[in-house]
Amino acid sequence: MQLPIFRLLILVTFCFPAFGQSLFPELNLDPDNIKKAQAMESEAMAQNDSVLLGKAWFLFGNTYKKAGNFSRGNEYFLKVIRILKGKDSKELAMAYLTLNEGIHVNGRSRVDYENACIALDIFSRMEDNSGIALAYNYITSFYKRIWIWDKQELKKTAAIPERSDTIRHCIDAIAFHASVAKDTTMMAEAHLQLADLYRHFNDKRAITELDDAYLLFLAKGDNNAVVHTICHMASAFLKFRDMPNAIKSVDKAEKLMSQKQIADYWTSTHLIEAQVDVFVAAKLWKRAFEAASTLNHLYAQRRSGDRDNAIQSFYLKEEAEKKEAEIQAQRAELEAARAERNFTLAMGALLLLAIITSLVFYFLYKKNRQISAKNQDLVREQNHRVKNNLQVIASLLSLQSDQLDDTPARRLIDETLLRIESMAILHRRLYDGEQLAQVDLADFIPEIVRGVLETLGVKQVSLDYQLASVLLGADKATPVGLIVNELTTNACKYAFGRTPNPRFRIECFEHNRVIRLVVTDNGPGMEGVNLSVPLKSLLKSHSSTFGIALIQSQILQLNGKGQFTGATPPDTGVSFQLEFARAWPAPGSLVTSAVSFSKS
Question: Which is it for strands 503-511 and 462-467: parallel, antiparallel or unpaired?
Fold first, then answer.
């Protein structure tokens, strides 16, 4: 009989809405919260701060929700989700959960669960244990709503223990994360959820859990939560048919509401619904009628807010879209500015890297130049010392020659001096020339010839040089110098004195990296010598000729080919041709034979 009577009371209050309207304060918007939200919104728009704007809109939505205008509040919550989506924050998670409450009013339980799971993921990524506990609290309410509040489902839940185990697991999760965060409010919520579960299964442990929740909320100073807990106590006492305590509970909650001037829609609605249930069960019809009238007034106020919101929704949406467009434009400008700044920083970094690299290369180049200059000095010093040592040797031999009375011996020493002088000329060229490790045969050969002629006192010789600029290193220039020295000496001894017009011709050129040297005189030739035979055979037939042996040894050192030839009649004289490659031949083709100087 209680349910029809309750419906009758609600119907009567529709006909007489004035009853009971003065029992509780009007649920108007909190002006302080509205001003604070407006200030935050203006500041966020000026600073292009989407996070601050989300906080402002959340405050707007929460203020409208507390006043019972759920539709308007939900629009703000949706805006918060839109602008903060992808940016984990407490406001974004709370928007999902608070939107969840409003949707529950319209009976969309599945969306409740999905939104609560999204909020749980956000809080988990943020490692916010209080938030995780709050999300589990909403998930627990979803399970109770679909499995327990419906009487048919309640019977199934009693027959399927896994359902209550799932709810109990969620409640344990609330308690665990609340204890980790030391969150008194969520600890009390865990007690409330467990008490509600016990109450639906007629377990009187619900009263103990409610007492624990009441004490925690009271210690926290949360008056709204204290009123809600007392209302839950009234429902539990009513469930266990303890009517006196049920009436005391709703009276106590009403007194607290009046003393604390609580003007929250959910708190007021919860208390009045509990009063209607208790007064109808206790058959206190007058008080039941007054409570039902007040409840009807609250329902009407919410419906009125929804109607007002329907009229303003177009303008609100238009304003929201305009603000979102501004935010998107400002965000695009910020992204462009950020991209330009990143590009500038990247170019600056590249420029700095280029400068540093250039400096490193410059210092390396400078150091290399210093090392190169030092090496040049060392090479010059080495050549200079070799030249000085050769000159000392030449001086010693010259002194020794002056003390000799034997003419042939003195001649041999003089020839040796000429050979040493050719090597000294080479090192002087290496020391004085621009090329540290190379000499130019075009300069080197005439100087050797001039030195020999001056030393032997030969004059009135017509010199004909056909010399190309050929650069050689010391390892190859030394044998060439000794060969030219030896040929010039032989010409002075055997050719120039036996012809009235002595001529001496030297040709040197390079072709395909092969150097060719031709030395020709116009003397009487080499009497009794067959010049058509190879130089090696000529050496065997004239084993006592030191000059030819020396020439042959230098040819071998050059890995080249040499040959004496006679002039074509009626011309007279001897010509010597030498060919050698600038680069060494491939391995296996080197001449390994040597000339012995042991024979006298």
Answer: parallel
